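Good morning C.,

I know you're traveling, so I'll keep this short. The sequence:
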Amino acid sequence: MADTLDPAGTGPASRDFTVQYQKLHLDIDLAHRAIFGRTEILILPESNELRTIRLNCRQTKIKSVSVEGKAVNLKDINYPDPYVLAKPFPSSSVHQHHLLRHRIQPYVDNPPAEELHIPLPRGVRVSDSAPTTLTLKLVKTEIDTLTPNEPLAGAEEASFTPLKIDIVFETKDIRDGLQFIGIQEDDTRYPHVYTSNSVLPGTACSLFPCVDDPTSRHPWDISIRCPRTLGDAFVQSVENSTKSIEPVDVENATSPVKTLGDLMGLNEREKALDLSVICSGNLTDEIIDPTDPSRKTVSFSTASLASANQIGFAVGPFEDVDLSIFRELDDDERLGNQAVRVHGYCLPGRAAEVRNTCMPLAKAVDFFTNTFTAFTGDSYKVCFVDDLPCDYSMTAGFSICSTRLLFPADVLDPLDTVPRTIVDALAAQYAGIALVAREPADAWLITGMRSFMTDTFMRTLTGNNEYRFRQKQCADRVHELDVNRPSLSAFGSILHLDPSEMEFMTLKAGVVLFILDRRLTKSSGSAGISRVISRFLTTSKGGDADATFISTSTFHQRCQKMGHLPLDSFFEQWVYCAGCPTFQVTQRSNKKRMVVEMLIRQVQSERQELAQPQNLDPERFLRDIKEEDAEVYAGLPPTVFVGPMTIRIHEADGTPYEHIVDIKETNTRFEVPYNTKYKRLGRSKRQKERLAATGTNNNEGQDEVLLYCLGDVLQAEDEVADWRLTDWSKEDEDRMNGESYEWIRMDADFEWICKLNINMPAYMFVSQLQQDRDVVAQVESLQYIAVQQGHPLISTILTRTVMDKRYFHGVRTMAATGLVKCATDECDWIGLYHLEKIFHELFCFTNSNMMRPNDFSERAAYFLQCVIPRAIGKIKDNAGEAPARVKRFFLDKLKFNDNSENEFSDNHYMSTLLTALAEALADGRGLESYDEDVDRDTFRKDAVNEIERYRRIDEWISSYQNIYSATALECLLKLTKGKVVQTNLQIILQYTRHGNGDNLRLKAFECLVELGMLRNNSILSYIIYTLSTGTSVYFRHHLYHILGRGLARIAMGEKKSDMNVQAMDGFVIEQEGSTEGRAADLARRQTVLGALAGLKEELGTNEVLKQALWTAIASTTINLVETNNLLELCSYLYEPVDKLTVTLKYPRYWRAQHLGKAVVAFRRTNKIRTRFAPKMLVPREPTPPPAPVVVKPKIRFGPIQPKVETPQPVPIAKPIISLKPSKPLKLVSTPKPVPPPQAATPQEPVPMPPPQKPKVNLSISNGSSSVYTNGITASPAEIALPTPIPKLLHHGLSVAPTVEGRVSRIVVLKISRDRLGRWPTGVKGPRPQKVLQQSNCSVINGHSSKASTLAASVKSGKAMSPPPRPATGNGVGPPTKKQKVTHDPSRSTSASPAPPNKKRKNSTSVPPPSAVPQPPTNRPVLKLKLGKSMGKIMGGGGGAHGASK
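The tokens, ready to paste straight into the viewer:
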């Protein structure tokens, strides 16, 4: 299989086919965390030019592929696995991050590139088919029995015959797409496995080959083979667990077998637990494997079209919980066949929590069936698993939820969030499975519809006040966050950047559809958005694939048709543009004309966030830099927000009058008439009570008006005095009585996502708070009061609001929080007094500060009992220190808490008290301040001991999700940052260890980061190591964002002061930095580029961080997205360097041994060459006498090259090696003619040297031209070959080492002729190959004492003794020191042609006797046998010891 190192392309290419059906068979091996599978894909070509089938496939090993029954050669398949490409280069570092990121970038983009490219085999072609009918309701039996090139029966028009692809694969070392829990030895949880599905592509293709595209929707058949029981999954013996995956026959074993289940601590009851398979689609069959009774196969079939990322399953010892029992009997009879069975699956021992958590699920299914459309499928399944990365993942007919959502019946706090999440998972089956976005720009519509359906059901469950209160909170949150953000339609293409993108898109999309529903309902009186969604869902069930896609344009047209009003401006400003309006409203009463003159100005461009740069938020730092890197720009806000706005004026008689104003311009002026003859009677009831007490009545002539008034509690005189309440002054009452209307309400129908600032007097907002029944109006009044300066009158109004039980609990908690503004020294701490009074009145014994036993049966009272301590904990004096009675308040409530008579848990309540206590203690004055006051120090120790006590309680009796320990860590963090206690890292670090809960570990790491421990190299490397080795994807995901927040604080320079403060002799000298320094610090806090520059300056040279990051990138645990995140982090810190260091092994010496019978054995020794060999002095050869013809012989290795006919053929002569000492034998590439002989230069006679060994001169040739030639001589018995030469020999080249360069490996050969002058038959001509480049190698004399060569004698097997040094003379002996050895190319090649030799029996040419002396006739024939040792030499390779760069 072709496995390229570079990515196949820069992105996904358009496919020339569509998938019509896919069948999947998976065999799951729990013990070894592996999957063996087979898939059949039926595709319909769209072009006859289809030659390659491109599929998505990752981290899987392809075993076989066939198309239409014909096998495809695996070598022809192009499969660049991204996980192979993500492996760093061996010698690379963090500075090569760009090279690695470039390789995996196409596979992390959205959409990703296809990895598996399958060519069509020979004999398979795309052929035209007869007009047939091809519907998406395919009959599975026809597909299974489909013969090659046979069209499907009953089809819609198709131009080409479908192709059937069969792929067999296996997946081991799974890093993405599948989560194995409880398999490791140190994991004590129940073993189970599940798919981690995502709305983004890249997870499904990690399990099986497919088209991982949400728009590719087709029917599925899935069969899963797995062990029958939990014990069968681990029956494999320990001895074979690491060698083979074949199961052990325990029944027939002759000796006792210790199983993996025994080592994992499974008892007999746990081994007998049946493994359940929950999968997308409807259950069709479940059979026991006939060949292996310990395994079973469960089959499923999807009831509707689904994409690959919507196929999911879970296998484990799950308990089946029937949730249909919570359906009322009347609903069951009324729905009849449409009643859907609801099943919950959980691990053993958590069935009660599933019943408590999923109690409203059956009612939600019935509500969606009646309101929207019937559920697709015969049942709905929800399975709770451990370590799920998100709260839930949606698959077809099946939702996988996290066990973090489960809570027992005695815990109250999750009731606000968990049921909504469970219902949202059900709504995803409609908007997300049945309906999908056609384009990424339409993704907002799916999330918005899902949120709208969830809110609609939760309205029936929690009431209208809760529904509107939450929508108001969401609208305010959208207005706060929608600053410099993209538009809703632009979010679909950037969802892969950061999870916060999906969170904001979901938030805003739900509110946009809410206000759209308000407009549709108001204009047409229809069902609004609910009816529109119902139409789309009903159409999608028809079986047409195109009907399952929804776009913004079609939704716009359908809403416009249903509502009978134009919506172009609405979609333009809320979907295609960004931002939210801010209205500044001024009003003035004209009593002569009896109108209210109003002016509405749009001032959203004047927002503080837009007017001046804001400091970066560490929570959003990673998202900001990713958007900066991806060039994501803020959406353009509309010039003017237009649309109708309802204005309601409440007149003195209590009658509201509505006026609709069409806003079309930036400044909109209009007049609102009011029709009333009454004076303002907002205080008539209280005035009547006062007059009745005095016995007078001055309102006899005034018509009585009954007003609905809230907040009229605590009106008695004794209550007013006891509570220290304050009433309106005489001047305020006179101004109120002079008004002609009570208050004006802007956007009364909640049709805008905006912020309204109206210049009404404060008493009108109070009237709105007390007399308007709409909870949104009450919230708006409290929002105005909360930003006002503290006053005893405001404290009185808020106190009466808290004490009036007729208010919604959200309004009461907002009022309690607002009392903090009045708890100041200027207001005589009246707010603190009222908070304590409220708490003692509601939750303590009468006339006592002793708390009554907890009673959480009334949920609204429980909310107040938790909110009031939070509010008291925020009260500080002007010096930033909490009053002593505030600290004593919390300590008393912690010590005397009594939960013995309460049926509900007080874990969250005690956590609230601990947090508020730490908030009150953290004053920032330092430990030295406690030395001056003994009482303060005693109280500090008591408070710290109380926090420590609850932390130790959690070690013995675990609280719900270890909330005591998490709260204690948070309190310790606040006290440490407030300089109340010293930093104690030992307590924090013990909670970061593996084995603790994920949330508790994350809280501990968060404390380390908040304390600035990232500047400690040990802590920094520990966090990154944990990030790369954690087994939980949920834990790794959140730890990465915690690391990002810590890096953001370093980048923004939070630990550095803007001024250098020096103390000298009691004086403090503040030295301001330079202008450039202040500008750089400001840029670090306000701009992304400035922060990145500061981060690079702080950590760019940290070698510990470099090593830790690169080690984490090379981890085999993290998935591809996490690897890309770490590479992005490297790109922010380090400059890219185009450099890779190549590491080579040191060469070794070789030893030659004569084995007899002309057999030489070559063996590699352990001796390593670590330096280059020195240059050798080679004696100069005498100038040969002129000769008529000199044909240079050639030594060839390899097959004989075929003859080539030429006009003048040159005969190829056999190589001749002359052993006569007087003249060397020259070996050249081809027998070329030599130039005419030159006369020898006369030289002075010199003494003749003693006889020497015969020399040879070698060159490298490819048969036609010289590749490498260098004139050097060497003994025939000591011809040294360098390391690359065996490879050159393998390519059929003639070899001759040279004098320039160095030798890396020595091979000793001795070549001679027999007594008849014939060469050995093993010497052949060269094989025709490409001309290689010059090799940097050399040959040195074997008898030199300084040479690093190994010489061997053929005859004796030992190194030959060096000959005596010849005397210098006329070129015969070696050169003197003044002589310079040079290389003359003319010695190895000839320019002039030579006549061919007629005698070619034993030689290639007939050189003159003076040039080539005849060898002696009594020399034996040397046969060279190349055995295994020589084969290794030919293969090359260095030693295993040592390395050099």
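Safe travels,
E.
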